[in-house]
Specification:
Rossmann fold; globular
């Protein structure tokens, strides 16, 4: 039996990894997220409060842990194993060995295996797969100047090629793996409804202030 904890941040990569876990017959029993105490290279931070909306849409319990990076991750994984009898965890790692290895090592300390289906996917192919499968996301922070006008913008089938072309032209990672941008998912095939967000842009970050659920378009 493959009982799985989805490690999620609200961003596209962790939720797409979870989607692939469902497709590959994992029994997804809970979601987990870490609220880091300070600046972090391991976790996605913008709008982490709104992960609970994803857990509600997926009808899954959410385990939230606050703390220093790997200590908090260890607490999360071990709690999930104890409370939900999980033996796998899904992660959205794409290309960062720093990130993937820490997930693998920490999971192993709790006796868990890591499912990382996005690892080393071609980033352009991955973005196209993502939107073709029905994902839509808002860019909630930009780490490169070329994306400053994309903060707060929703990405889907209609404009993903523009994002890919911009990344190719300016030589940054199209999926944001190098910190070029962070995202928040507003629609996915597993959601019964889509999310509409309202907020404000400030200092290169789109802060979500209000959400509402709407019928799928």
């Amino acid at each position: 039996m493959r009982r799985l904890l989805g490690l999620v941040s609200g961003g596209k990569d962790s939720l797409y990894a979870l989607f692939l876990a469902y497709l590959h017959s994992f029994e997804v029993v809970a979601l987990g997220t870490v609220r880091p105490r300070s600046g972090t290279l391991l976790f996605h931070e913008p709008n982490i409060d709104f992960v609970k909306i994803h857990s509600e849409l997926l009808d899954l319990p959410l385990i939230e842990v606050r703390g220093w990076e790997e200590e908090a991750l260890l607490e999360l994984f071990c709690r999930a194993k104890e409370e939900y009898n999980v033996n796998w965890v899904s992660v959205g790692a794409l290309a960062s060995d720093f990130q993937r290895l820490r997930f693998v090592w920490t999971a192993a300390d709790c006796g868990l295996k890591v499912y990382a289906p996005l690892w080393h996917l071609d980033p352009q192919k991955y973005l196209r797969m993502l939107v073709e499968d029905g994902f839509r996301f808002v860019i909630v922070s930009a780490g490169v100047f070329e994306l400053k006008d994309w903060v707060g913008k929703e990405v889907g089938k209609e404009n993903v090629e523009e994002l890919i072309a911009l990344a190719e032209r300016h030589r940054f990672h199209p999926a944001g793996e190098g910190g070029e941008y962070e995202s928040f998912v507003v629609d996915a095939p597993l959601f019964p409804k889509r999310i509409r967000v309202a907020g404000e842009r400030r200092d290169g970050i789109f802060y979500i202030r209000r959400t509402e659920l709407a019928a799928k378009e």
